[in-house]
Amino acid sequence: MLDAAKINELAEMTPQELADLLGPELDIYIQKMQKVEAAQRASKQLLTFMQYINPDPDAPDDITRSKYEVHALHKVLAEALEKVERGEMLRLALSVPPQMGKTAICTKGFPAWIAGKYPHRDTIIAAYNQNLAETFGTHIRRIIEGREFQEVFPKARLEGGVRSKKEMMFEDGGSINLIGRDGAGTGRSADLFIIDDPYKNKTDVDSLATREEVWSLYTRVVNSRMRNTGAVIVIHTRWSTDDLIARLTDPLNPYYNAEVAKDWTYINIPEIMDDEVVASILGKKVGDALWPERRSLKMLNTVRLMDPAGFSALHMGKPTPPEGAFFQVEHLHGYDHKQLPKNMRFYLAGDLAVSTKKTADKSAVGIWGIDSEPEPNLWLMPHLLWKRSATDETVEWIIDQAKQYGILTAYWEKGQIDNAVGPFLERRMMERVKKGEGQWFHLEKFPTTGDKGKRAQSFRSLCAQGRVKFPTFAPWWPAAKDHMLKFTGSGNDLEDDFADMCGIMGQAANQILRAHVPKATNVVSPKVGTLAWTRWASDADKRRRNMPGRIVRAF
């Protein structure tokens, strides 16, 4: 029988001495020695560890065979995780497509590997609820109690006694604790804190209350439990532009802090390669599938066609698809200075915010021109108010633009204008008109009915027809374009002020363009003085009166 003591004794012999002594047992000895060497490598290399603890059940002692299949993406993950272990990367955020083995290596294998190397250290693992966290713990315990783990880390042993689903205690004093996102961290400090799947699904992350709960998990639990050299790993699907990864790493998120963000490394691995650098690291080309043996390009494209937004979040690590969620990128038409029509009617539309707090919505107020084409187009002027501003600043800007463009009608959402700046706007308008410094205009109010997507349908339809023109030369256009492509119309968007302003103008266009009757060359007016002529003239007058605004030169 070749036990550990015997193997160590045989290791001192020459190959010929071994062959003479062992005879037919020589192959078994060689296999045993290879396994000992593999166990030593597994204690230092995460991927080797993953293969070692997942032996082929038909040949458990054959180190060349393992149930754990290593893919290029696992090498990327392992390299990052080993940097975490060495203290070179203390803040790591990961977004990886589903069913690619990220949880197996990051949330099950890595904590077990760390516990084996450092059984005196404390790890906390959090998930969207206690049950999921405990499921992670069950898998980790199974690894630690397995024969293979003990072969790699013989000194790392769990304490005996009562088995708890919420924690594992090691004889050397370390622990692994499992908590839901509403947990308090069990009162322990942490050398490693892993947050995996803090959101259950899209509905979960769409809830502001849930997003705040996850943010509180990080700011109040993680931050209060970490030691100086402790590491944090965040792993989740990118369902929202306001998820935890966005708040920590995205400069466009209101919670973003540059000092905090500089400590974070964010790795996103898309399932269809869309970046040359990422593709090169993975040994792929742009357009290739990440793991075609798992999911082919054909399958992925089918999934994308059926659910673009879901595909973008789950498989590409992008909260909104690049082609747009509600508004499509090919429907956002631009113009330059030379393309502006000489004569247009101008209108004002706005989405107003009451609060100027950091996390409050911005006010978005735009000037819209409508040309005199048979099928009239909407032209958004480059002069735009889109920021968090005080009420008096917003009102003065509106009055100034109304005078400059000769606006006679401004469109708003009823609740906003009544509860926010309406009374103040009317009073200031009257004061400035009396001083000869302003222009009187009518405030048209639309009732708040249906969801945001429904209220923006008219505007989306005009965009799809190519009848809305945006000033692509304006400095704010890149941000506005990104904003519109991320808009979902669900009411749960992180920012929707600019899109809401466009939606209000779409409702206004319904009124304005309904009154617009293109000239028809094959229509003859009735004979003057007849009853038919009286009716015709009356209808024409009504159409004229239903066209608020006046024709002025654009610039």
Proper CATH architecture of the largest domain: 3-Layer(aba) Sandwich
Which parts are unreliable, with pLDDT below 50 for 5 consecutive residues or more?
517-523, 547-555
> What is the domain tally?
3
Major β-sheet, in short?
8 strands, mixed
Please compute the radius of gyration using only Cα atoms. Answer: 33 Å
| SS class | alpha/beta
Helix content: 40-55%
The CATH topology of the largest domain comes to Rossmann fold
What coarse outline follows from CA principal-axis ratios?
Answer: elongated
**For this structure, what is the CATH homologous superfamily of the largest domain?**
P-loop containing nucleotide triphosphate hydrolases
Beta-strand residue percentage: 15-25%
Distance between the termini: 96 Å
Counting DSSP H or I runs of 4 or more residues, the number of helices is 23
CATH class of the largest domain: Alpha Beta
- Average pLDDT, all residues: 85
Number of DSSP strands? 15
Please sum up the structure shown.
This protein is of the alpha/beta class and 555 residues long.
